[in-house]
Amino acid sequence: MLLDTSGLLCLHFSTEPLHTQACAEYQKATVRLTHSYIIAEYVALANARRFSRSSVLNFVVDLLSSSDIETVWVDEPIH
Question: Could you tell me which of 32, 43, 31 has the C-alpha nearest to residue 5?
Fold first, then answer.
């Protein structure tokens, strides 16, 4: 499963309309993948939607430290 920007927002915030569906799909996924551009977009989107910065940053730290999620860092050769 590609963890994209809006999916992460729905997964993280229970106030999002598709939160329950996002949680269910996340739990079913056997492979979870994201990349650094998505993480950057997620932070910007959450900021624009006025969600708590500390909550957003804690979520990102947990996401990056999770052994269940592969994060691809987009560097110059990949870009």
Answer: 43
Q: Please report where in the chains the tokens 């909550």 appear, as a residue.
A: 55
Answer whether residue 78 shows pLDDT above 90.
no
Burial class of residue 18, CB neighbours in 10 A (0-12, 13-18, 19+): middle
Report the percent of the chain where pLDDT is more than 70.
100
Rounded distance, CA 20 to CA 73, Å? 28
Which tokens is 78 given?
Answer: 């990949």
Cβ atoms of 6 and 41 closer than 8 Å: no
**pTM: predicted TM-score of the whole model, two decimal places:** 0.90
